[in-house]
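Quick one: Glycosyltransferase family 25 protein from Rubellimicrobium roseum, structure tokens please.
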Amino acid sequence: MTAVTYLINLDGSDERLALATRALEAQGLGFERVAAFDGRGVPPASLPGYDEAGALAYMGRTLRGGEIGCYLSHLDCARRFLATGARFAVVLEDDMAPVPGAARVLGEVLDWLAGQPGDWDLCNIGAGKRKFFTPLRDFAGEGTTHVLGRAHYFPMTTTGLIWSREGAGRFVGGHARIDAPVDNHFRRWLTATDRGLAVWPPLVRPTGAESEIDAPGARRKVEGRRPLYGLVKQRRLWGDKARAAFHKLRRGLGGTASGG
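--- reply ---
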């Protein structure tokens, strides 16, 4: 088995599941539904692994139950993957829509990765932006060319991901506490190690549907922020950008292929 595909979907979100199912089946993509961990309305302190002090230090604010639930849902998918014999796992969120020809290009990307050194952990196939990016291989899509590259500054979205077994093992094995939303965690980790990849333009895009995992409008709220929230955020962003720039320069100068 080369790859397994998981679709994260909240119990009761039947319309989103139906839309995602139709979109994936239209391209011949089968999947296993994974019930999302529903953290909405749950006190964060009661959720497993939540580190409020760590969140205040790293994010400058406390986390919401929905954010912790999203993290735990992705952790569940990684654990499921490791229990299989598959080489790769594709993890999709139910608010995604595959672009035309996505299934074919995805298959070609997986085939190519299977023949390459294992110097990557996670590949983002749903990124809306591309920064600090080193192209590795082009794939012909429908009316466009999709570029697989080293994502030195790992994208901030989890709409569509490809795990390697090594990467999923590192995610699961390194998990001890939750001090950031899962997309922030992936950026911190993979920007530091330079073991992240991305496909641009993306193979899946968000449908624009409002998140059901987090409370409506929750990202616009300011509750839980520490007084120096803005400074903490800028320190985090510029630290990641500096590391990304270093890795891009290192590879451009012929540095080692492995990101550590």
